[in-house]
Amino acid sequence: MADFSIVFPAYNEATVIIDTVRSYVDYFGDRAELIIIDNGSEDGTQKLIEQNFRDDARVKYFYFDHPLGKGGAVYEGFKHASSDLLGFTDTDESVPADQFDR
Predict the structure, then answer these.
(1) Which sign, positive or negative, has the C-alpha torsion 50, 73, 64, 45?
(2) Reduced to 3 states, what is the DSSP secondary structure of residue 14?
(3) Is pLDDT of 50 > 80?
(4) At residue 80, does pLDDT exceed 90?
(5) Which of 1, 48, 61, 75 stands the most exposed, by the fewest C-beta atoms within 10 Å?
(6) CA 62 to CA 40: how far, in whole Å?
């Protein structure tokens, strides 16, 4: 089990989500479980996530066909977390991965 879980609420984030999630995967390795909650994106976010992380057990992806809002997406992510230590961040990497070590 991962040491902690990080939730990424996402809506139409195709231009940034792959680089952000990859940077978190590279930084944390097996220490973190990354949970992406897709709020009904219509820009190809789902396809990109599936193409890039389908076989990566460290990344969980959940698609909702309707917007949950940021708070709702974070809540859904926390419900799917396997760790007791939880966090969340936006997909634009406004919080670099190393900030979670603090």
Answers:
(1) negative
(2) coil
(3) yes
(4) yes
(5) 1
(6) 10
Residue whose tokens read 């949970």:
35
So what's the pLDDT on residue 27? 97
The CA distance from 3 to 88, in Å, is: 14
Domain positions in the chain are 4-101
Phi, psi of 69, deg, nearest 5: 80, 165
The residue written with tokens 């992806």 in the block is: 61
- What is the CATH number assigned to the segment(s) 4-101? 3.90.550.10
pLDDT at 63: 97
pLDDT of residue 14: 94
Give CA–CA dist 98/75, Å, rounded.
23
**Count of beta carbons in the 10 Å neighbourhood of residue 61:** 20
For residue 67, the Cα-to-chain-centroid distance in whole angstroms is 16
